[in-house]
Amino acid sequence: MKTNYILFTFLASSMFGFSQISENTYYVPQAIELMPNQVLAAQDYFGSSSYITDALNPLNNNSKMGEPVDGSPLGFEGKDNTLIIHAKNDKYYKFQEGNYNGLNDKLVIELENGLFYEFNDSDIDFAMINNTKALKLKDKNNEMKYFFVLDQNEEFTILKRIKAKIIKGSISKMTKEKMENDRYFVYQDFYLLQNDKLEEIKLNNKTFRVLFKDNDKKMKNFIKDNNLSIKNEADFLKMLRYNKTL
User: Fold this and answer.
1) Beta strand pairing status for 182-194 and 197-201?
2) Domain extents for the chain?
3) Tens of pLDDT along 203-219?
4) Reduced to 3 states, what is the DSSP secondary structure of residue 36?
5) Which of 42, 140, 148, 175 is deepest in the core (most CB within 10 A)?
6) Taxonomically, which superkingdom (predicted)?
């Protein structure tokens, strides 16, 4: 599918940088409860030179222009996802069919099937997708990337990075012809933010011992009684929430 470019006029702008990070110090603000009159109509947000792109077929990312790619690079399943943007002008904007493109690290909304509006990061302070906070932090390569806040308490914050890549389709050894389309593969990395230090973690027993050491016995009983696995993200979140009650 050919990429379509359409210019808009963008209202939201500001001279302030990302407030979540200064030098090597990280700050993750608490989730904010929005009053109804704080959320403005989506059409009030569109504006500075931005464009609409075919998010499912970014041809420039494929080695052979025009070849289809199966699947999706989007991080949230389905279309019923609410995106709330907190712009640098300190106003909130609410969108339906919002999502996150893990291939190019962009917040998007779907305008029609396969056609997406891609937001300009410089206009955004932070965002919420289905009540999950998305904010920019420096990754291990010192590049600003979107991280998603899974859970936080007074001691630490658990974050997730959603990524996507293109896996090449198989090629016939005899004819050298492509037998399968390329396809998207979406995956996640998890991080622990503690004492201003951002560290990648794995969902395993080592992480369990680090995070739940003060309630080790009670947590093990909770896991056993509820048949949970720390290797499962949904189960891991249940553990984090239960640990807060102890």
Assistant:
1) antiparallel
2) 21-201, 202-246
3) 999 999 999 988 999 99
4) helix
5) 148
6) Bacteria
